[in-house]
Structure formats: structure tokens, C-alpha cells
């Protein structure tokens, strides 16, 4: 969800009662730098003239993510496989609501807050559920601790990036190459789960996510210092 917000240099909200998945600028930049954003744009373009609103898509993303977390928490391989599919669907829908908001101009302060909350809830729930499920399958409390560390780190990253955006008037960039950004690593959750590599992935996430959180904290400190000059 960070990508489509970053396409807009300033924030503008619409009157109460408007729909939307986020606050966007009055003059959009239609460049779509990442492959998933381009695919989301292509998917929602036919829906722009329908009754479907960005908040509806956000709700679908939230429900898919919570359902995916529930399956992960069960711990069995079959349940984990279903959980992975639902989580990837949730991630993609989280990009679709922003693209639909951009195409329709259906933005609101509530939609922006709702999208943020849904994204945070899903990320935290899925990673904690991964750890809980792996814990029940043999990792014990270590699995739950890794899930909590990774999930909390992702939430911290999101919140810090939002604060950086408020200070700079734009979202900070993400490391990336060839249309892929560091956040896109979450799409690998599905094949990693299906191949049975989830324990190793969660171990890496429990180290890598806090590392990226520290890098984002450093960026935030820099933005604070720049704002005081």
C-alpha cells in the first residue's frame, strides 16, 4: 500500500461521506513503478465505473488476511498452504484498493485510516499466526517468539514510514531493482510455504525485518533532523 501513496506529493481529503482507501493528492502521478502496482491497475480499471468502492476492496483484503492467519495458526501443512494463498490475495488486494481510489477519486480520511489499520492488522496477525502454527507443529515457544518479532517489526516499519511521509511530504523510497521493491519479498511467502520452507523463512524474517526497521528508524531520525534546520 505504501507504493501508491508515494505516487502523490501531497495529501488531500474529500468531504465527509466520501469513499476511499487512502488520502491522495489532488493531482495524481500515473507512473506505476512496481510490477504488482501495474497489475493492480490493470485489474481494477474495468471496475472503476462500477459500484465497487476502495473501502470494499480494503474489507476483502482484511478478511482474506485474517482468514489466512487463521489457517496458518492451525499448523498443518495443508492449512499453511491455504493460509499462504489467502495472504498473497490479501497483499494484492491491498494494492488494488489504492489503484481503485486513484482511478475513481473516491478518497476520504476514513478510508485512509481504514486501509492503514487493515494493513497493520493483517501483517501482525499473519506473522504471529505463522509462529503459533509452527510452534504447535514442533518449534514450541520459539516459533511464536519469531512470529511476534517479525510481525511487530513490520508494524514498526509501516508506522515509521508514515511519520517520514508526514515530515517530508512524501513517502520514502524502498530499495528495489527492475520493478521489484524490498516489500515484494512478502510475495515469496506463498511458494516458500508450499515448498515447506516456512520455518527457515520465519527465522530470516525475525532477523531481517528488525534490521529493516532499524534502517527505517535511521531514515526517520534524518527526516527529524532535516525538519529542524
List keywords for this structure.
229 residues, mainly alpha, Four Helix Bundle (Hemerythrin (Met), subunit A), two-stranded antiparallel ribbon, 2 strands
Shape: globular
Helix content: 55-70%
Number of helices: 8
Global structural class = mainly alpha
Given this structure, which CATH class is correct? Mainly Alpha
Strand content bin: under 5%
**CATH T-level topology:** Four Helix Bundle (Hemerythrin (Met), subunit A)
> Could you give the order of the helices and strands?
HHHHHHEEHH
The biggest beta sheet is recorded as: 2 strands, antiparallel
* Overall average residue pLDDT: 83
Low-confidence stretches: 1-32
- E-strand count: 2
Distance between the termini: 30 Å
Radius of gyration: 18 Å
CATH architectural label: Up-down Bundle
Explain what this protein looks like in three dimensions.
There is one protein chain. This protein is an all-alpha fold. The chain has one domain: Up-down Bundle (Four Helix Bundle (Hemerythrin (Met), subunit A)), CATH 1.20.120.1760. Helices cover 70% and strands 2% of the residues. The protein is built from 8 helices and 2 strands, in the order H-H-H-H-H-H-E-E-H-H. A two-stranded antiparallel sheet has the order 1-2. Helix 3 packs parallel to helix 5 and helix 5 runs antiparallel to helix 6. It is globular and about 50 Å long. The N terminus is likely disordered.
